[in-house]
Write a structure and sequence with these properties.
six-stranded antiparallel sheet
């Protein structure tokens, strides 16, 4: 056994920049099982669930035990009884696969056992063949096929670029559907006039809809001239983590900063989260300043910031029984950081940050399984095959 001090990135919490060192106990075991990994609260093993996936982007668990996995090139796959079925699911809409675009999130309707409705996000090609946007569809998942597919929303965020689609989905406990739309990499030259600050577009927004795409009457900008009624919050960059706490109904999101400044935000009705007017990052390569400052009245500060960035993707709030001392923690995946981050919360405040599952690959998605285990989807930049794994607790002596 060895005791290692791991250097944490700088983090912003409660108005201060903090360096957060962490002690991690590590033990390597052999003998037929995966090595035990030790953390401050629980020992666990990282166990492979499925191999051979090409750029997996999201996971969803269905009643009956199946797991669905999206592959960004445009395939929806089924993992059944521990095996990745060879054929992709028919009926998935055509996607614009390239850059960061393709088939992205997958979420089952809260009443999936009754209605069999499945929701997908993807980069939708425009009729001109040049532009694309984030779109959401739903369809009935029957006999391993997607049928009766219909559009829920086609975001007003068209671009010829292939980045910053956002694209995460989550249902709250009242059945409303929340959708993240990225800023589509619009260059932050005019800070105040940037599309993320413009309520006439869906660039850099969180949207809130009924499950069929209708706009709820109590959305904050309904009836406001010059504002799209689907908008719930604005001033975001590229939110690739989204989770709604089933106990509190709080909406949490992580978003990519530029060079530095990834954020964890508590998303609230009608609020402005500042991009690109305020923030903690700088320009890629040059390090030049972007923002007018780090905070401004009327713009919500992040709950937590990663400096340097870990390229956050995938977000989960753990409410399972397999790891009881992790209950209530947020788990965020890191792409560039190649790490799983556990954040301990006290209300809306982060009190501790712990790095787990480091240097195994780019973590694209994080989900809690029905067994209470923590599932991770890894991807590679070069598009070669990767795995879905899960964290299994090691029984305490």
């Amino acid at each position: 056994m060895r005791l290692t001090r791991v250097a944490q990135p700088l983090a912003f919490a409660g108005g201060a920049l903090l360096a957060l060192p962490m002690l991690v106990l590590q033990t390597d075991l052999v003998g037929g099982q995966e090595p035990i990994e030790r953390s401050a609260q629980h020992d666990f093993r990282v166990v492979t669930v499925a191999d051979g996936l090409i750029v997996p982007w999201a996971m969803a668990f269905l009643p009956g035990g199946d797991m669905l996995v999206t592959e960004r090139p445009g395939r929806l796959r089924i993992v059944r009884t521990g095996r990745l079925l060879p054929a992709p699911v028919p009926g998935v809409p055509a996607v614009r696969a390239g850059g960061q675009g393709g088939l992205l999130d997958v979420v089952a309707h809260p009443r999936f056992a009754e209605n069999r409705l499945l929701y997908l996000t993807f980069s939708k090609p425009g009729p001109d063949g040049k532009t694309n946007t984030t779109a959401v569809v739903r369809g009935r998942f029957e006999n391993d096929r997607l049928m009766n597919v219909e559009t829920v929303i086609e975001a007003k965020a068209w671009s010829e670029g292939e980045g910053h689609f956002g694209s995460r989905l989550a249902f709250d406990r009242d059945g409303y559907l929340f959708i993240t739309i990225g800023d589509r990499q619009v260059y932050p030259k005019d800070l105040e006039g940037h599309p993320a600050q413009d309520l006439t577009t869906h660039h850099g927004k969180v949207l809130r809809l009924h499950d069929d795409g209708r706009v709820p009457a109590d959305n904050p900008f309904v009836g406001q001239q010059g504002a799209l009624p689907e908008i719930w919050s604005y001033g975001h960059r590229n939110q690739q983590g989204l989770v709604i706490d089933p106990d509190t109904n709080e909406v949490w999101a992580t978003e990519h900063g530029p060079q530095g400044g990834d954020e964890l935000n508590l998303i609230e009705r009608g609020k402005n989260y500042g991009w690109p007017v305020v923030g903690f990052g700088v320009m890629y390569r040059t390090g030049a300043a972007i923002h007018g400052g780090t905070m401004r009245e009327g713009m919500e500060p992040p709950v937590h910031v990663w400096i340097p960035s870990i390229a956050t993707s995938g977000l989960m709030r753990y409410r399972g029984d397999a790891f009881p001392r992790w209950r209530g923690s947020l788990f965020a995946g890191g792409l560039g950081g190649e790490q799983l981050v556990r954040l301990t919360l006290d209300g809306p405040r982060v009190t501790n940050v712990e790095q787990l599952v480091q240097r195994r690959g780019r973590i694209r998605d994080v989900r809690q399984g029905p067994d209470g285990f923590v599932y991770l989807a890894f991807e590679k930049r070069d598009g070669t095959a990767t795995s879905i794994v899960r964290l299994e607790p090691v029984p305490e002596p």
